Every structure is written in C-alpha cells, then in structure tokens.
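Could you help me review a protein record that somebody else here produced? This is what I was given.
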Amino acid sequence: QLVESGGGSGEVGRSLSLSCATSGDTGSVKYVAWFRQAPGQEREGVASLFLGTGATYYADSTRGRFAISVDDTKTLVHLQMNALKPEDTAVYYCAAAGSNAWYPLRSSAYNWWGQGTQVTVS
C-alpha cells in the first residue's frame, strides 16, 4: 500500500515536497517512482529510484529541479520539487515496482500505486 502526503498549492519559483509511505511486502520493491498526470494528458514519469544502488532517473522536464529520495528504512519516499513552474500542476502519484524496470519512468513497469495528491502551481 502506498499513501502520498504533501503537495497542495505553491508559487512559481518556490518549492514543495511530497512524501509516500509504503507498507506491506516492502522487501519485494525494487524501484520507487513519482508520476504525474495533468488534465487531458497521459501519466508522465517524473523521477524514479532503484533501491538496490540508489540510482535515480529523471524526466527532462524535472531534471535539476526535482529530487527523489528514500529514508534509511526504504519505506518512505520523498519528492522535493524546486523552482516550480505552472506546468508542474498535476496529480502526483507514488508508485513501486517489484521487478527490474528497463524503462524506470514508464508507468507499465510499476505494480503498485498510491491514490494521488494534487499539486497546483500558480
């Protein structure tokens, strides 16, 4: 089970952070990621992290501004969003994958999803 928290409204150029608490069979998780979906658009991967090595992956639109991380227990996933832009407005979803992902930013690689949390930038 994945439960997101944080988000809400932010100003252009400022920062927001999201968190995702994972529970259940967390030992089987290999990748965690954040996706977002704006109205009328497809779900987009914004950041992913491979728990085995800590390797991170970012979309071109978020690289350098967003940072994904996990806590020491690897059960809490964070997304720090800096230098916010209006186009960052979307519902953000936390996701987890139980197998290796050739394409860590593709939604098809992920088995488990949170319910989503709204981020609005103005």
Notes: The chain has a mean pLDDT of 94. The longest strand covers residues 90-97. The two ends are 31 Å apart (CA to CA). The chain is about 0% helix and 50% strand.
